[in-house]
Each structure stands twice: as C-alpha cells, then as structure tokens.
Amino acid sequence: MITLNTESCTPMDAWSTFTAMSLHFNSERDYDAFKFNFKGPRCKRETFMSHKNRYQFEKLARAYPKRNEVILYSLANLIAGNKWIGECNEGAYNNWTGKVQALDYNFKTDVATIGEEDERLSLTFDQCFLPDDLSEPPLIYKLYVGGKISIETLAVFENMLSFTSRLNKKLIDPLEVSKGTSFLVSKYAPFLVHAADLKKYTENVLSVFTK
Question: How far apart are CA 156 and CA 185, in angstroms?
Fold first, then answer.
C-alpha cells in the first residue's frame, strides 16, 4: 500500500487532512497537499468542536487512526467524485484499493487497449496524447471518458511523460473539458509514483508500440 505519512490521526487531524486533500483537488485553488504535509489551514479547537460535520470526522478518525489511512481514504473518495465528507464511503475506498493492488494488470490491459485503437486509427504513439486536430480531445482522454481505460493509467503516463502541461498549452479547449481531466490527472499522479514500477511499465509500453 502507498505510504505518505506515519502519524496518528485525531478527529481534528482527520478534518485537516480531508481539507488539505480537498484543496489539492480543487482547480480553483493553487494548493499542493504534499508541500504542506497533508495538513490544511490552521483551525482552533473550539472552531472544530462547533463544526457542523464534526461527527463525520470523529467517525473517520475512529475508523482510520493513522493519517496515512485518512489521506488514502480521502484520495479514493475525491477521485470517485465524493467531494463532501458526508458523501465519502468505505466502498469507494475499497474499490480504489483494489484498483491500486491490480495496477500492474490494469495498466498492461489499458496499454493494449490504447495500442489497438492506435493501430485502428493509424496514429503514432505521440498522437495518442497530442492530437493533430487540437480542437479534439486526445485519444487517451476519449478512451478514459468512454470507460475503456482508467484514471490510474493516465496518472502513470503522467509520471512517465509529463504530458498534461504540453497538452494544455496546445489544445483548443474553450469549455476546458480536457483541461479538467488534465488537472485531475496531474494532481493524482504524485500519489502513484511509488505504486508503479515505471521502468517495467515503460518496457510494457515499448513492447506494444514498437512491435
């Protein structure tokens, strides 16, 4: 499992951690949870005690007494689109944990899917990430939106290629749909740095696209 923090977690810590994670994935805020060690803005104890969702964070700290667990629980739920603590649930966390445990297999399967579409459309590897028609989303985003590849695969590719910044600069995206995906991918990628063997994954990509 991914280890980002080894500290214990009180209910106030759970609130702080969830807040930091929420800010990290908020496209309207320039916030890096890693930089602040997964700790949100300071909060006085009396302010926390009167917080309308205090019970939710007390419950979260009882279920996950280590800050690392709260980080990953928050991550899993935010990736699943559960932005309010009351929406967060163990099912989303268990589902995410299963995906991370199967990351090797899922990435290999997704790369094969990308390779098949790449061949069908006669694209180069680079064109899968940066389309010739810059008013269109890249192939990998189309496959992701269509449910054919996972957000984890995109995050692994971001760790390999750092493709999102280059894509954002060139893509014509007035509604910022693709930029929204790029933001999610770029914010998610650092969490998977130590979950994926990038050397092995790169070899897998090369075996598909250089055959």
Answer: 9
**Rounded to whole angstroms, how far apart are CA atoms 132 and 123?**
10
- At residue 8, the 3 state secondary structure works out as strand
d(CA 198, CA 204): 10
Neighbouring C-beta atoms of residue 115, cutoff 10 Å: 17
Residue 3 CA to residue 145 CA, distance in Å, equals 29
Q: What is the pLDDT of residues 133-177, one digit of tens each?
A: 999 999 999 999 999 999 999 999 999 999 999 999 999 998 899
Per-residue DSSP letters for 56-93?
HHHHHHHH--BHHHHHHHHHHHHHTT--STTT--HHHH
Start-to-end CA span in the chain (Å) = 33
Q: Is the pTM of this model over 0.85?
A: yes
Q: How many CA atoms lie within 13 A of 172 on its CB side?
A: 6
Question: Contact, 159 vs 187, CB < 8 A?
Answer: no
Amino acid code (one letter) for 72: L
